[in-house]
Amino acid sequence: xxxxxxxxxxxxxxxxxxxxxxxxxxxxxxxxxxxxxxxxxxxxxxxxxxxxxxxxxxxxxxxxxxxxxxxxxxxxxxxxxxxxxxxxxxxx
Length: 92
Known about the structure:
The chain is mostly helical. It has 3 helices and no strands.
């Protein structure tokens, strides 16, 4: 999954290096090239590509939370459990 972003960063790094070492280029131009052609688009692409994984992690966390909540309330009613033994009534 990460082979394309790694290759893209290599290409952008070579572009920035060529910009910095060119007689008509500058280091500032190389930094701008690296940022605008590399870091910014790559961060957007990786964010979009990571959306399904974040969604799966969120659903797994919600499922684990629901399992923990159902383990705490065995009757599944969602109410706090009452006393296990009924109170003793006094005869009038």
